[in-house]
Amino acid sequence: MITDRLVEKGRLKSEFGFSDDLFYRWRKAMDKVCIKFEKKYNLFIFQKDRLDSHVDNHV
């Protein structure tokens, strides 16, 4: 699963020309949006995806 995400992330970066830093900041911003959405509606649907994204960033 982690390797699938790494491949997906690499493909996204190459298609849109993101640098590692820009892509990382974009993911962090999306994580913040997800957290706000979860708190507002008391949901946890993004929890697992957010944890996976942090694992990917440290591999």
What does this structure look like?
The protein has 59 residues and is mainly α. The protein has one domain. The protein contains three helices and no strands. Helix 1 crosses helix 3. The longest helix has 22 residues.
Architecture blueprint of SSEs:
Elements: H1 2-16, H2 20-41, H3 47-58
Helix pairs in contact: 1-3, 2-3
Give the helices and strands as they follow along the chain: HHH
Task: Give unreliable regions as ranges.
Answer: none
Structural class: mainly alpha
Most strands sheet = none
Judging from the principal axes of the Cα atoms, what is the shape? rod-shaped
Count of domains: 1
From the N-terminal CA to the C-terminal CA, the straight-line distance is: 13 Å
Number of helices: 3
Share of residues in helices? over 70%
Give the strand tally. Answer: 0
Estimate the mean pLDDT confidence: 65
Question: How large is the share of residues in beta strands?
Answer: under 5%
Radius of gyration from the alpha-carbon trace, in angstroms = 12 Å
Task: Write a concise keyword list for the protein shown above.
mainly alpha, 0% strand
Task: Please summarize what this structure is.
The two termini are 13 Å apart. The longest helix is centred in the middle third of the chain and has 22 residues, at 20-41. The chain has 3 helices and no strands.
